[in-house]
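Hi W., the adenosine-5'-triphosphate complex you wanted:
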Amino acid sequence: MKIEVKELSKKYKEKDALKNISFTLEGPKIYGLLGRNGAGKTTFMEILAGQILETNGQILIDGETPFDNQQLTESICLIKEGQNFKKDLKVKNVLKIYSYFYPTWDEKLADELIQEYNLNLNAKVKTLSKGMESALGIIVGLASKAPITIFDEPYIGLDAAARKRFYEILLEEYETEKRTIIFSTHLIDEVSLLFEEVIIFQEGSLVLKEEADILRNNTYAISGTIPEVEAYVEDKEVIQKKQLAGMMTAYVYGNLQEAKSQGLDVEGIPIQDLMIYLTERKGA
Ligand SMILES: Nc1ncnc2c1ncn2[C@@H]1O[C@H](COP(=O)(O)OP(=O)(O)OP(=O)(O)O)[C@@H](O)[C@H]1O
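Structure:
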């Protein structure tokens, strides 16, 4: 499904959570939506899922707006950090409700994932541990098979092994049936290899939208003495420079392989670091 974000703004009282954001997401891909705390990621995902209204601008999904549009929201599943489900419901009833809501619901996958995460179908949501509640969210998100599936920090309380399994299953499912997956996380290093495209927000604005492979191949860090690095970056597009004890590292937009072939001390920049450099607050 095509998602067009047009001059989107959201204001909470005096707070501008989103400031005039525009971009388009074309077709099924795994997108990483990144940014510091308070950058506007959750606000954006809630507008996209039709759960809240924008203040200005709009999001069009195949030409339609999601708010109050049940036919469209049947194609969108947003799993948040917590409190996705009513506390008094049993796990099996949560699954039943979502299976009625999503025409694309995959019962077999839901059953397999229940086994995988060892969830008790008769347990009430309020008796689940944080990790188990997250597992239920992950199961609903994956089994919904919604053409737009959004995970907003979906794994609070899940241990490293359970998170790893989630990433593996997500990828397996995506490979068998492509859909748009938007993944927001602060554990970027863990997940970044899944991302096909990276979107970075900073304080309500879009600072970057780029294919992950292009980012990996076209950004690098070069290190050396201050004069060496200064001379090298003179005609380059620099993201950031850092100095320590007479040495300098510059983070640069440019071809990684080309820089390597010149015998310089260069290395790729992990996406997590790139996000940090690009969103470093002035004066911080
Ligand atoms: N319901 C609300 N009422 C008032 N302000 C809000 C509300 N929801 C979000 N905000 C504010 O809007 C800004 C963006 O918040 P949002 O939750 O969208 O950011 P985020 O990028 O998801 O942050 P995090 O990574 O910490 O989850 C923040 O300054 C936040 O305090």
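Residues 160-176 form the longest helix (17 residues).

W.
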